[in-house]
Amino acid sequence: MTRDELLQGLADPSHSWEMIVIGGGATGLGTAVEAASRGYRTLLLEQGDFAKGTSSRSTKLIHGGVRYLQQGNLALVLEALHERGLLIGNAPHLVHNLSFVVPLYDWWEGPFYGIGLKLYDMMAGRLGLGPSRLLSREETLERLPTVAPAGLRGGVIYHDGQFDDARLAISLARTLAGLGGTPLNYLRVTGLVKEGGLTTGVTALDLESGREFRLRSRVVVNATGVFADQVRRLDDPAAAPVIAPSQGTHLVLDRSFLPGDSAIMIPHTADGRVLFAVPWHGRVVVGTTDTGVEELSLEPRPLPEEIDFLLAHAARYLTRHPSRADVLSAFAGLRPLVRPGDGGETAAISREHAVLISGSGLVTITGGKWTTYRRMGEDAVNRAAAIAGLEERPSATAHLRIHGWQESGAESAPWDVYGADAAELRKLAAEDPALDEALHPNLPYRACEVIWGVRREWARTVEDILARRTRALLLDARASMAAAPRVAELMARELGRDAAWQKAQVAAFRELARGYLPCDIL
C-alpha cells in the first residue's frame, strides 16, 4: 500500500486502534510487528522517516556483546546471543556471519581473551556461528593483511553477526504492513488524548499535508529512543528523566584500509569501549565512541575530538594511518541509555531495556540495542496488552520471517539486501535501460532502487533514498551529493513533484551531507 492509502485508514474518526506505537526505529518497529503478529490492530507513527535516528547509525553488528561479557553481565549476553541466532534465521538476507579477529600484542592476551571467547561460544550454544580459536602470527596477518605487524604475537578469531540496520528497519515496516498493521512516516505525535485521567489516544500532524488527526487507541506505547522523555512529558510535564543519552560516532574508510573478509575487534580503548573495524558494503566502518551529550537532535554530528579519537586508534592497529582526508563519511547516533540511579559514565551504563508504566497507562519501552529489538517488543506488548485488557495472545515473532526472507544462498545479487524482492527489482531494471544505470560510479546503487524505494518502501525525500533505502550517504558522502539531482528527478516523476521541489530537495540533502565530511568538521 502507498502512504496515501495508509493515511486513508486514519480518516474515519470512529475507528479505534488497539495499540498505537510512537517511534519508527528498531524498538518501535519491533513492538509494532510484535503487536500486529498477535492480531492486535496496530498503528505505528514516526515523526521523520523509519530509522531516521539512532537505528540507522549503529556499528552494523548483531552481537552478544563482548563488552558485557567483560563486565560480567552474563544475563544480557545470553539474551543477546539467543536473539542473534533467531534473527539470522528470520532475516538471512540482512544478517550474516562475520569473523572477527582480536590481534594480540602482549603475552597474557592469548589465554585471557581465548578463554573469554570460548565462554562466549558456550553461551551461544546451538545458535552459535562458529568456534573461536587462537591464531598464529602468520594466520593473523593472512586474515588481517594491514594490521600493525610490530610486536604482533598472534590473534583470536571468533564469530558474530553483521547486518544493514536501515534496511532491516524498512523490512520490518513492510513486515508490519503485511501483518495488517499500519506504518506511517512523517506523522508527528503532538499530544496525548486522555479521558478520565487515562491515555486513550494521540493527536498527530501529517508533516506533508499539514492535516491533523485525533486517533483513539486502547493503549499507547512510547518507543521513541532518546526522545522518550519528551513523550513522557506530554503525559506528565513533571516526569523525571530516565534517559542518559550517549553519542557514538563512526568513520567510513575505503576497503583498502582493511582488505579481506574479517573484522578487527580491539577489546579496550582509552574510554573503556570496544573498538571495531568492520568490512561493510565494500567499505570499512570504524567505531565507536561514547560521549555523554545534553542536547538531543534528529541529526547529531560527530564531534572533532571523536573523529580524532577514532583516527588515532585506527592508526595504532593499521599499517596505513587514515587521515581526515581519507574518511568517506562520518556519522553519529545517540544511544538511549537508561539513566542509573547514582550517575556515572555512560560507557558503564547497561544496555538492558526498561518498560515503564505511567499513572495514565502510557507504556514506555527504552534502552536496549538492535540485537534485542524483538525481545524488547515482546516485553512491551506483554505489558501494554495487560494494561489495555486486550485478549491475551502468545508471542509469535521468535520464528517470524521478516519481509524479504528467502533460503540462505538464494541468488539475489546485486540486490542481496532485498532478499526475495530482488527478482522484482531485476524486472524493474529490465523495463528501461536507464533504470539499470548506476547512480554514481563510486556507489553500488542503480536508478531502479530509487523507483522501488518510492513505490514499495514509502520513501518521500532524497535523504530517505540516499541515507536509508540505499546507504549512499554513509558509504561516500561526496558521491551521494553528486547523485542527489538524479535521485530527485526520478522521485519527482513518481511523486508528481515539480522542478522547485527537486531543487529544494537537492539543496537540503547537500547541506545535510556536508555534515558527514570530516574535513568540514573542525
Strand content: 15-25%
Uncertain segments are: 342-350
The strand count comes to: 20
- The assigned structural class equals alpha/beta
The CATH class of the largest domain, by name, is: Alpha Beta
CATH architect. name of the largest domain:
3-Layer(bba) Sandwich
The averaged pLDDT comes out at 93
The CATH homologous superfamily of the largest domain is named: FAD/NAD(P)-binding domain
Number of contiguous helices: 16
- Taken together, the total number of domains comes to 3
Shape descriptor: globular
State the CATH topology of the largest domain.
FAD/NAD(P)-binding domain
Helical amount: 25-40%
Distance between the termini: 44 Å
Main beta sheet, described? 10 strands, mixed
Which labels suit this protein?
FAD/NAD(P)-binding domain; six-stranded mixed sheet; 20 strands; D-Amino Acid Oxidase, Chain A, domain 2; ten-stranded mixed sheet; Helicase, Ruva Protein, domain 3; 16 helices; alpha/beta; 3 domains; 522 residues
